[in-house]
Amino acid sequence: MATEVKVPTLGESVTEATIGEWLKQPGDPVKVDEPIASLETDKVAVEVPSPVAGTMGAQAVKVGDTVEVGAVIATIEDGVAAGETTEVKPREEKAAEPEQAADIDRELEELPKGGTEEHAATLSPSVRRAVIEHGIDPTQIRGTGKDGRLTKEDVLAAAAAKKAAPAPSVSAPAPSASPAAAVAGERREERVKMTRLRQTIAKRLKGAQNDAALLTTFNDVDMTAVIEAREAYKDLFAKKHGIKLGFMSFFAKASCLALKDVPSVNAYIEGDEIVYHDYVDISVAVSAPNGLVVPVVRDADKKSFARIELDIADFGARAKEGTLTMDDMKGGTFTISNGGVFGSLMSTPIINPPQSAVLGLHRIEDRPIARDGQVVIRPMMYIALSYDHRIIDGREAVTALKIIKEAIEDPMRMLIDL
Predict the structure, then answer these.
(1) Statement: 2-77 belongs to CATH 2.40.50.100
(2) Residue 305: pLDDT band by 50, 70, 90 thresholds?
């Protein structure tokens, strides 16, 4: 007897999703509540658990298909209970011949081993084919699938990076040698359908440009005081709170000061009304395998430095694992985006609708500046505030950014609320 597996409720106002990846293939043993598929919604990836123990049956939809809440996507067959050691018939993908599958296995065995012998054995058929086609060592790729599994997208990304890498310098060939370049078919193109998350990111960012009157103001910050504070208290802080003291908590608390003093930067337009907030929920831009996500640190103005650091660390870890929920990203009154971790010197970030402002952080670098009539070298960072000019005047934007700058350069201001 087969048990149907249906698309679960995905969250408020979310009625459909896209099949991102099958985590179980027909014939695989399945435990109760074990994830069998990953769904991509507009904001997060959601795993579909098995309602019963048994054996993975037929898959009713393919990767990339759009499914609605409540739709049947697969079946679980009665039979092999999870945990029993029974040989499972491998899935035949696209009617592959036995000899072809054996050739793939032999070629995988010939690839260099990176330290994990079982790595190749856990690859799905489509991933195995991609590995062979592109000549990629699977042990050298970090998987983004469930439990670190490799996906076909991981292999394709590694192949693209390998192709883009500069060729090692070699001695010029002898005049009689035939040129090796311009091999027929060397120029290649690949079309990959955008994920639902990437499509949503594209629509929201373009919508922000179309609807808001965007403007960006800049300033630079001397990071000396914050760096010295971190150096002085990093060991005690980590020992007491179990987390490193980072820059984000300083900027979050500094932003809270600015948003309290300049309420319009913490507000947004709804219809013909301006909605002001007496709380600060900071959306923190986090890089995930499928794109940028913005989980929310709620009541940041009431939280300690340690609590903010713990929340951000948790969001970062769960973003990489793909376990962020819809509730994690709901709301938010202001956004902080740190492009400095990727080496950005300066940028003009785009607001996160319906919010009206976003703070952009950048890399820290030593630069000569004037202090008390002397030229000194200080660790400096450019900061940017992009804002919706329909609701925030230039004076208010510049004032808010100046408050953030002053709080970072003199952290005592955050303690005595100046």
Answers:
(1) yes
(2) very high
Q: Is 97 helix (H, G, I), strand (E, B) or coil?
A: coil
The one-letter amino acid at 397: A
19 and 35 in contact (C-beta within 8 Å)?
no
Is the CB of residue 255 less than 8 Å from the CB of residue 280? yes
φ, ψ for residue 104, nearest 5 deg: -60, -45
Q: Which letter does DSSP use for residue 169 in this model? A: P
What average pLDDT does the segment 377-391 reach? 95
Compute the distance between CA of residue 330 and CA of residue 350 in angstroms, rounded to an integer.
Answer: 18
pLDDT digits (tens, 9 = 90+) for 394-416: 999 999 999 999 999 999 888 76
Residues 6+ apart with CB under 8 A from 406: 413
- Give the whole-angstrom CA distance, residue 38 versus residue 53: 18
Report CA 51 to chain centroid distance, whole Å: 29
Task: Output the six-digit token pair for 57.
Answer: 């049956």
The catalytic site residues sit at 389, 393
CB 362 within 8 A of CB 216: no
Cα 361–chain centre separation:
17
- 57: helix, strand or coil: strand
Give pairs for 99-106: CB < 8 Å, separation 24+. 101/125, 104/128, 104/129, 104/132
Exposed / middle / buried, residue 174 (Cβ in 10 Å: 0-12, 13-18, 19+): exposed
CATH code of the domain occupying 104-164:
4.10.320.10
Instruction: Note if the pTM is more than 0.85.
Output: no
Report the distance separating Cα 209 and Cα 388, nearest Å: 10
Lowest mean pLDDT among 104-118, 126-140, 193-207: 104-118
What are the Cα distances from residue 120, in Å, to 137, 146, 150, 162, 219? 9, 16, 10, 20, 51
Identify whether the C-beta of residue 382 lies closer than 8 Å to the C-beta of residue 220.
yes
CATH code for 201-416? Answer: 3.30.559.10
Q: What is the CA radius of gyration of the chain?
A: 26
